[in-house]
């Protein structure tokens, strides 16, 4: 009788459904944790690139350590260690997100007192009467005329010149209660006030500003057509010489009847 040859029994590890299910469950958990960690680490890398270098060094060290150890690791142990490493990385990333990011410009050092005094806006202070009006800015010239009005007894004196002033630079009430509207023209000696300037002022001083006395003051002079137009409209013109006399107190306020400083 012959013997029937039988196949040798396979003595390897038997298939375990429970272990396989646990392995894939742990693998899925690790992938989910890795996704959240990668999302958190992306923000950390943008704000603190040095953390990316540190984490890469840690991962490389772990891989090298495992490469030197030649023993086989079970699937459960690999999943457990991977989860622990991801948990530590996630905790480090969240701690880094909680810390305030350093300023890219470095620490703020307060400037010493007075370091920027030369760039601060300058407030125009009132100018005392009798000064050289040619050396003043337009704003200071308006303030100087307002000072003269106050000195000679006007009330409710206001400097209103600026954008949209419609020709009125200074407004006040004369000592006898009339409304005074003044336009200031700080011109050079060779630049006279022309009739067009008078016409623009004459179109607003009475109808818009309701002036009882309209006064135009200049550091220059007036052309003949300008003086003629002023006489027709009742505007008082004060030229350079009349302004000097008024400023020095040698002439009364130009709004006074028969004032020496007014050209009519």
From TrEMBL:
Pfam families in UniProt: Mrr_cat
Family matches, as PANTHER family: MRR RESTRICTION SYSTEM PROTEIN (PTHR30015), SLL1429 PROTEIN (PTHR30015:SF6)
Stored Gene3D superfamilies: 3.40.1350.10
Family annotation (InterPro entries): Restrct_endonuc-II-like (IPR011335), Restrct_endonuc_IV_Mrr (IPR007560), tRNA_endonuc-like_dom_sf (IPR011856), Type_IV_Methyl-Rstrct_Enzyme (IPR052906)
Molecular functions per Gene Ontology: endonuclease activity
Protein keywords: Endonuclease, Hydrolase, Membrane, Nuclease, Transmembrane, Transmembrane helix
Positions of transmembrane segments: 21-42, 48-67
Protein name per its UniProtKB record: Restriction endonuclease
Domain of life: Bacteria
Domain Restriction endonuclease type IV Mrr: start-end pairs: 134-246
């Amino acid at each position: 009788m012959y013997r029937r040859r039988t196949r040798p029994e396979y003595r390897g590890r038997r298939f375990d459904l429970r272990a396989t299910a646990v392995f894939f469950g742990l693998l899925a958990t690790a992938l989910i944790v890795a996704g959240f960690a990668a999302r958190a680490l992306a923000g950390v890398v943008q704000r603190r690139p040095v953390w990316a270098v540190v984490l890469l060094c840690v991962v490389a060290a772990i891989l090298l350590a495992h490469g030197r150890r030649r023993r086989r690791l079970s699937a459960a142990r690999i999943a457990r260690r991977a989860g622990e490493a991801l948990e530590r990385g996630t905790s480090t990333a969240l701690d880094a997100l909680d810390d305030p990011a350093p300023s890219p410009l470095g620490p703020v050092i307060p400037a010493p007192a007075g370091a920027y005094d030369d760039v601060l806006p300058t407030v125009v202070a009132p100018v005392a009467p009798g000064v050289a009006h040619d050396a003043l800015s337009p704003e200071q010239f308006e303030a100087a005329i307002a000072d003269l009005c106050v000195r000679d007894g006007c009330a409710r004196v206001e400097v209103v010149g600026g954008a949209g002033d419609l020709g009125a630079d200074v407004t006040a009430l004369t000592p006898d209660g009339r409304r005074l509207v003044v336009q200031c023209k700080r011109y050079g000696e060779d630049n006279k006030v022309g009739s067009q300037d008078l016409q623009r002022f004459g179109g607003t001083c009475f109808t818009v500003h309701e002036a009882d006395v309209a006064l135009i003051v200049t550091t220059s002079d007036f052309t003949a057509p300008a003086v003629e137009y002023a006489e027709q409209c009742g505007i008082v013109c004060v030229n350079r010489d009349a302004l000097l006399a008024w400023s020095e107190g040698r002439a009364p306020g130009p709004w006074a009847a028969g004032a020496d400083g007014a050209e009519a």
